[in-house]
Amino acid sequence: MTPRKQIHLAAHFPGVNNTTVWTDPRSGSQIDFASFTHLARTAERGKFDFFFLAEGLRLRELKGRVHDLDVVGRPEALTVLSALAAVTSRLGLAGTVNATFNEPYELARRLSTLDHLSGGRAAWNVVTTSDAFTGENFRRGGYLDRADRYERAAEFVRLSRELWDSWEPDAILADQAAGRFVREGAIGSVTHHGAHFSVEGRFTLPRAPQGHPVIIQAGDSDEGREFAAATADVIFSRHGTLEEGQRFYADVKARVVRHGREPHQLKIMPGVTYALGDTEEEAAENAAGIRRRQVGPQTAIAFLEQVWGRDMSAYDPEGPLPEVEPDLSEGVSQGRVAIKDRAAVAAKWRALAQEKNLSIRDLVIEVTGRQTFVGTPENVARRIDEHVQAGAADGFILVPHLTPGGLDDFVDKVVPLLQERGVFRTDYTGTTLREHLELA
Q1: Which whole-number Å values give the CA distances from 105 to 74, 190, 290, in the listed order?
Q2: Of 52, 293, 365, 440, whose Cβ has the fewest other Cβ atoms within 10 Å?
Q3: What are the Cα distances from residue 113, in Å, to 84, 116, 122?
Q4: Start and end of every Luciferase-like domain (predicted)?
Q5: Domains plus CATH for the chain?
Q6: What's this model's pTM, rounded to 2 decimal places?
């Protein structure tokens, strides 16, 4: 009998986006360290693989004004994770850091430092940026063409690994045991001359506890899938349904093999949300309430403007979709992921609104604000297990709708049921994130 696959779980700090229900009285600060501590400790209590932080290099704008949600602040990820290393002992610590607006030597040092401080729990979510809007905060500006961003990222990761590998394994331990400082030759010199980077020198830190920090990649484009298949240890995807997940899973795992790797060397973990209830009806009611609070009237109009590319503030969010056509010349939103084909998206939204007789707000709720897993704890545990056993995912990154207590119910009510099924650990068996993810 084939053993049941073990499920991997991670916790995403909700951050500044429309997932968070800001109006809930239990919603707390996005920058107070106590918020990060609460969510991280809850995830560690639930024996999760890692805690995950996103990144924001510039405040987003809508019609030339700072987007309302961004005013709560966007802390720098590795600083927060270094502090969390002191208040956790097993939980992996994953930070999103941009490969377009950083330099390999410095970032490799920061990530290696986190890995040493945490005893081998560091992870890097590699992201790229091609837009000049974000680049205005940096010396090089928006100099990269979109086609070049993954090329730079791939070279960035290769060079970082050269730096991490430049010290002999266990050089310090061996030399300390012999009563001497690190001997000549134990520290290698790195010489790299590529299309994007030129580095000659010696790295300042010995090999980290888990060798390399875990590499995470978030992307659904063909370039993103290829980059993950060749380079990453984890891919953070958006495919929450069983059928979509199975197609994505099969495609990416096949690419992994084509790159000469084993399928298990890349874990596929979609980002998901959830809503629980004592009954299926109560869970559905909770989910509907969360969706309406996530997409308030102002947010509904903001989403519409991103697709229509024009000021829609004169329209009633509780009224019907207007007849006006999208302005495809330029958008009104900056700092968000670009919508590739706004005309096609607008046509799809209009057809859906007509079919279901939806208001603007109900339409936006329908297309953006839904929970992946809705039901009783027993039903949610069963469905999560089914997705993993059916080859739709290796696990999930949970994105709660509340900061910082949004993970509490899942850890208290769903995790024990997964443990009873024999598909999730009852305790950590290793100390490093690579061991948690079965990559070691």
Answers
A1: 24, 10, 43
A2: 440
A3: 13, 5, 9
A4: 27-392
A5: 8-145+207-277+372-436 (3.20.20.30), 296-368 (no CATH)
A6: 0.91
